Amino acid sequence: MFTTPAFSQNQPPQTPPPANQGQPPANGAGQSRDRSVIKPKPGGEAIKPQDYSDSTGYWHPFSREGKYILIDQKKVWTSPLHTKHRQAKWWVAFGGATGALIATDKYFAREMPRSGWVNSVGTDVSYLGEPYTLLPIAAGLYFGGTAAHDDHFRETGLLAFESLADVTVIQLALKSAFDRQRPTEGNGNGEFEASTSPRYNSSFPSGHAIETFALASIVAHEYPHKRWLKILAYSYAAGVVGARLAADRHFPGDVVAGGAIGWFVGDFVYGRRHNPALDKKPTLTGRILDHVRIGGGLQ
Fold this sequence. Notes:
The chain has about 300 residues and is an all-alpha fold.
């Protein structure tokens, strides 16, 4: 006598679960916004489906950038009024570290060894943190990605541009408000409301630090699994910060404050503008980056 299969007794057949059930989506798809630390409410995406490289081409995504930057400024300047409990720790850590450094800046400036060649090298390396260097990098990412039909790479360049625009406004406002002396001004104590330079060109916070760390933050958020690329981006920013100290243009408090602000602005812009669908699109640039290793060239 044959036995009756279980599914014939008014029960639906049981199908095996998908092979990837319980596993994170490939390439972190669906989880990419979680890379943001402050986790802002998602806004309009920088690269929308109608903007993909095989659709409207080079220029269309820039039509929204002016509006996006204005929205960013409103969100950034009003953020202290809407800080959530999980975000308050970042304000406390940032404020405490900055205050402690400012209190000891004058002692650092007095003990800092000075020599002509160190100052000269610091001045030369500082050019890597100027807008005329960083903006072409952002443009190269965007237009290079467009030429390669790599919309993820295009988004990296567009978000880098948006972040640089945001931190430029922020640094000019903060410099003008604090008007801090540079290490070579006055008695070298870094007094506030006392700079002999134009207020918008005062010492606090460091413009080089805020801009290079904003760019590094975007690259690191966009490619979290490319460790070598994250190391390269942050090393670039750290090198510029070190150059500003070596050139005797900033105190430690200036560069730490600038670096932290730049990183968080990059984190904010990424959280607001990233299109998670781009993480799932296979790209030529992604395949190339997958085979690059520090110290080993192409693998």
